[in-house]
Amino acid sequence: MRQPIIAGNWKMFKTISEAKSFFADVKGKAEIDGVESVICAPYIALPALVEAAQGTTIAIGAQNVHFEDNGAYTGEISGVMLKELGVKYVILGHSERRAYFGETDEIVNKKVHAAFKHDLLPIVCVGEKLEEREADQTKDVCKVQTTEAFKGLNAEQAAQVVVAYEPIWAIGTGKSSTSADAEDVIAYIRSVIADLYDAATADAVRIQYGGSVKPGNIAEYMGQANIDGALVGGASLEPASYIQLIEGAK
Ligand code: 13P
After folding, report:
1. Calpha distance 9→161 (Å, rounded)
2. Which of 119, 157, 164, 169 could form a disulfide with 208 if both were Cys (CB 3.0 to 4.6 A apart)?
3. Known catalytic residue: 66?
4. Residue environment code for 25-60, b if the CB has 16+ CB neighbours within 10 A, otherwise e
5. What is the pTM of this model?
6. Nearest by Cα to 115 from 152, 85, 78, 71
């Protein structure tokens, strides 16, 4: 059985004090048996969140990592640093990083390997642009992105990857994919992983849907056989709505 996983992607929101206040509000309430809660925050809020999360079941994640351990890479943060901090997850290949910071499938794959090297669990984002959807290329895009991201991973590592299917046109737009459409693409992504590895590995991989997920539609996505949770932007920023998302994933 795959444990549902709800991850809040705060993107570039919240100061350290705002992060602390958010955590105090969700502590205890966003901890529900059978659902994994994750908060992926800006780097500078991570130390405070990791400390606050001690003794709770809420996991803390970063939103990016550099693929080298150290070096002359001004402005970057490495897996060594995140590991020492006590971070558990790292979002990789988010469409905003692909679009605004030039991340290619090859870079995403290097980052996936860096994550495993330092015992961080990757949440790998895949998903099509609006024009790709309109050209009926959704599955092809997801297949290439998934295949490239998993390159060089053994089956044991592959089984631990969390994939987030985020159709780009649904991010922050209020236009969510229907649950049936999301299920169709996510089932396909699982079949791609089965072809790369085997059925047991594909069965173990958790695949989230992301894109305008709200407390009002989370249950619909969770009702689909292949959808194991959500990667949530906007609706993860308010404590009450974050708690409702975790409750809705049960
Ligand atoms: P929204 O939930 O704000 O649409 O963002 C989705 C997303 O990009 C999560 O990574």
Report:
1. 17
2. 164
3. no
4. ebeeebbbeebbbbbbbbeebbebbbebbeeeebbb
5. 0.98
6. 78
